[in-house]
Write a sequence for this structure.
């Protein structure tokens, strides 16, 4: 059975996946970029941006694992871009340039329909306006037997957690205090039940906790 | 200058320092005892209970450090006991038996005055009904130049964090999801500003993050 997986979801020690005051200028909230420094320091992430060098140990292994066996991605609209409301002109095609690092179908949750956008390198963005279950069905179909990954952000992950649909989740705990922002693991309404930590290791920069769902 | 310190404050990955539905039968909330299994497995904690053996590595080092250089403890009333409202008969003298593991003055925050209770082994419980600043003043005085430790629980730590009074804080992140309960690092109202992580290491059971306040 294909799995629904979450990887490299960075969270501050006080539980925030984004800092306070998220807007177009601060898409990760104030201070939120500090949550991702560990990831950008890895060899794998640097290579994605055409850079050499980088950390090649534990953190790099986790970054690399996030893509293995994944055939489709689901993400929330806020992760796709800062545009709110109707799409208007179809100019915005994501934060990732012409050749996004997905290389497979990506399903963007939105209340506003939009035609698919095919990018270079095999990534096509599909816009799903009939709910997260529909997005999951379409993603599973598109993945062709491979797993589906939830790319983020926090509210999208929470939505699938609450629905009990996530099979495997990797959270990266960054030892900073943001003092406010968007909570990752909150308001789960029983959705956290049945998960067991199967791996817990840390680098100097981040503690990695990997959970699998044992209740079905 | 004596410091105000917090040690071995266990928190679930989803940010709870106690499980849901705290009451006299579940003083740590449902599932909350899982937060403390790592501590009770250490050699130092076992020795406090007259038991031999136990973990003698990283976790044990952190448990041991919590008492070094500490001359007085402050704790919330809920950590002292399950009694609510006025004290009534003075029977309740804490969870720790005749010889509590403090061996110095302990200041219990309460809205209801009560005479001090001297226990065996040097522990005396003082009941402070005129607020946390007063408790801190009394504890600093009683510590005679040594540091003051906040024993807990979560709401007491939050109170001093919000007031910007904590100099050093060690949080132990336990890789479990409690799904609800009492949040440790929440509603801090700017109180998290100015803390920097100076140590971040993990055992298979727990990740230890030690923060110091760099703003004054």
């Amino acid at each position: 059975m294909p799995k629904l997986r979450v990887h490299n979801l960075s969270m501050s020690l006080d539980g925030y996946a984004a800092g306070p005051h998220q807007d177009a200028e601060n898409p990760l909230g104030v201070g939120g970029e500090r949550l991702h420094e560990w990831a950008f320091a890895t060899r794998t992430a640097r290579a994605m941006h055409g850079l050499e060098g980088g950390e090649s140990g534990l953190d790099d292994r986790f970054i690399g694992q996030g893509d293995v066996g994944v055939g489709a991605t689901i993400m929330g609209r806020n992760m796709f871009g800062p545009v709110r409301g109707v799409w208007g002109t179809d100019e915005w095609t994501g934060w990732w340039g012409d050749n996004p690092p997905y290389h497979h179908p990506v399903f963007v949750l939105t209340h506003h329909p939009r035609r698919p956008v095919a990018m270079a390198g095999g990534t096509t963005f599909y816009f799903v306006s009939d709910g997260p279950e529909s997005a999951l069905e379409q993603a599973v179909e598109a993945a062709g037997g491979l797993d589906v990954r939830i790319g983020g952000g926090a509210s999208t992950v929470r939505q699938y957690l609450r629905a009990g649909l996530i099979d495997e989740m990797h959270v990266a705990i960054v030892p900073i205090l943001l003092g406010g922002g968007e909570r990752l693991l909150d308001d789960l309404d029983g959705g956290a039940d049945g998960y067991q930590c199967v791996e817990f290791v840390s680098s100097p920069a981040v503690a990695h906790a990997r959970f699998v769902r044992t209740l079905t």
